[in-house]
Queue: 2 jobs
Job 1
Amino acid sequence: MVKDAHPTKDRLCPHCGHHVTHASNLGKGEIMPPVEGDLLLCIECGKWGVETGDGLIRLPTDLELYDIAINPDCHRAEAAWAAMNQQRIEQFYRRAPS
């Protein structure tokens, strides 16, 4: 179970094909399912997608990418993802045989 996340219909990241099964809300204060137009950051590849409202995730438009680029909440989410991904990489190399 993913802590502080809402279970969602199993769908695919449009960038990497990762199965997305949970979503968290940035700055909304409570855990709710994503609605059409919500931004989704893939936990696997760290790229943004957009909730379609019919159970799919699509690529962001150019305007949405601009909005992501200037949104402080998106910057914080990207920084948190980068820190988590760095930990995953370090754990992988600690387990890898020499």
Job 2
Amino acid sequence: MRFPSASTLPRIWKILSPILVGIGLMVVFALMAGFAGGACHCVSPVAVFFPYTAIARGALSWESIGDVLFILQYPVYALTIARARGSNWKALALLILLAFHIAAVVLALRVYQHG
């Protein structure tokens, strides 16, 4: 079995660290959505924090895909921002992700409002 050399470890860490940050964010936001959803007895907090999951589960009844999207959403966000080169590209990536997230939240809330 070969172990990664010292030169490959920084490259591995550049990919692994944003994924771990994204997993941490997913856990924090899942707890926040759970507590907020328990307080209002509604699904709105889940739709706000995890809109792609809400759309897949609510509108399309794709529970398995919704579960995958739940796990991957924030690691993909973190990896996208981390892999952008330069502060201008990172800011642009953040704005694009934010725009898509907000659009998905609006769609997810409409799905549950009319569903």
